[in-house]
Amino acid sequence: MATARLRVFPHPEEDQEDSSNPSITIRLSELYPLLAQAYRDNYVWLRDFEDDELLVSNDLYEVVRAVLELSSVGFISGGACLAIVNL
Predict the structure, then answer these.
(1) Dihedral sign computed on CA atoms, order 47, 61, 36, 32
(2) What does the mean pLDDT of the chain come to?
(3) Percent of the chain as helix, strand, coil, to the nearest 5
(4) Residue ranges of domains in the chain
(5) Could you tell me which residues come within 8 angstroms of residue 64 by beta carbon, excluding any fewer than 6 positions away?
(6) For a pLDDT cut of 90, what percent of the chain falls above it?
């Protein structure tokens, strides 16, 4: 029977950055397909990041708030709300 050989590599020393500041800039168009698939297919790893905060532009924040407000008063149904966000 073959024995598995494992090698241990030391973790490189990296500068400790303030975790409260975003460290990578990414376009929503790059991130959205992955998040949409992860949400749709109920990927477990997505739950690991539920409490993470995202820094978004003022424009995107205003759109998200408006859609949430309209859906909370019944002006937009849940399905229509998702359709607007999917645009």
Answers:
(1) negative
(2) 77
(3) 45, 0, 55
(4) 28-86
(5) 56, 85
(6) 26
